[in-house]
Design brief:
single chain; 4 strands; 132 residues; Rossmann fold; 4 helices; alpha/beta
Amino acid sequence: MKKVLFLCTGNSCRSQMAEAIVNARMGEEWQAVSAGTKPAGYVHAKAVEALSEIGIQHEGRSKRADEFREDAFDLVVTVCDSAAEECPVWLGKGKKIHHSFPDPALTDDMDDFRKVRDDIAREMVKLLSEHS
């Protein structure tokens, strides 16, 4: 089974949604985890709600990227511009890819959470399918 790490700054929205979507939809091929460069300490309730709307129950926790430094990943995907700048070199194993999504927490609008969720579902499933 291949492993992917999704990184963003707070690990409260985008990377959490990516982790949950990949584990729910591609769990037989990929194991996903997520982390942040500056973890918020919580998973945003609207991210959890947006996932629930598409049948994914997620009970993640906000994690620091250093927690996974020794783990071997096939891919490390930064999902926000800030994390890409703060983590230009992933010191652990894994090919690094950057694919930015806007932060829905900035507007706190449920429609923005849905749009980002749908974009992540489409783009990350496509990306990982190409690397299977």
